[in-house]
């Protein structure tokens, strides 16, 4: 394929294959060097091809945010899957059982007595057993039981349910995205790991083994993963990185594998208009409490531009003095939040250097059923 990415129609989602491979190796090398298992989260990329690359580079399994993503992975032949979401509706439990019936080594997050009773009731009808992981709250205050005492009580309840077995304890320190400096980020990472380790140790003191102690969050995994007692890490965004990660100091711009190719559709005295609005770049300017970026994406090679506002199909970029961009010029934009932007496209256009080398589908994008 001799096509150049600069000749593509826009907006187009570009994925730098060389940078992607380097990011995957970095995650894998960290896990290997520190005696940890690696279970990357696929909610960022939602791609069978990228999932397979991660498995080839040493991942022991994968993590999903949605049961639907797990179904996509299963269809791709990947069998060891953690659904890091506490499913409880009858229809989703039935679909989880369907995956078990296909031989998938499925793990489901649990965080309430009511939920595990619903899982037990459905599983009793089938004879299947299900591995569950207890999710603990490490400060994000979203899902998860409180560490230690509440985790022990839930673990004890699981022991009385014949179709369930405990495989691990895990957490997600998403509030790390609100860290204002490296010291605060480290504090959050240590607390994340300690919430998991202390909960596992409390369970084991009462005779309940906890084989896996897992932490996630791209900003923290290389810190939390070093805490004694942690056995597994689950980074997601680290496969691509984005402007939020750069703003947090977790990555450099050259580490960002994902970008959006945009065209200039309007040049005015005080602004440049691009064909990338909220339906392309999304509206993220930070996560969980911190605006860590300026504007709605970083325009590569044009630091004079700030994408100040978005409507659905238009991105309005302003500049302090001048810009040399003209009508129909093309630019690359590193998104603020790669996960949400990837979910807006049907495919990745793979690039190496200035050439296009292929396309991969965003297989699990927009899944709702």
Task: Please tell me about this protein's structure.
The protein is of the alpha/beta class and 369 residues long. Helices cover 31% and strands 23% of the residues. It has helices spanning 17-33, 48-56, 67-75, 90-101, 113-124, 149-159, 182-205, 221-224, 243-248, 278-281, 338-342, and strands spanning 12-16, 37-38, 62-64, 80-83, 105-110, 130-135, 164-170, 212-216, 232-234, 258-267, 271-274, 298-299, 305-310, 315-319, 330-334, 347-352, 355-361. The strands form two sheets. Strands 1, 10, 11, 12, 13, 14, 15, 16 and 17 form a nine-stranded mixed β-sheet that branches. It has an eight-stranded parallel β-sheet with strand order 2-9-8-7-6-5-4-3. It is elongated, with a radius of gyration of 22 Å. It starts with 11 loop residues before the first strand and ends in an 8-residue tail after the last strand. The model has no long low-confidence stretch (mean pLDDT 95).
Q: Give the helix tally.
A: 11
Terminal-residue CA separation: 36 Å
Largest sheet entry: 9 strands, mixed
Report the principal-axis shape: elongated
List the uncertain runs. Answer: none
What percentage of residues falls in helices of 4 or more residues?
Answer: 25-40%
E-strand count: 17
Instruction: Give the strand content.
Output: 15-25%
Give the integer mean of the pLDDT values. 95
Give the H and E element order. Answer: EHEHEHEHEHEHEHEHEHEEHEEEEHEE
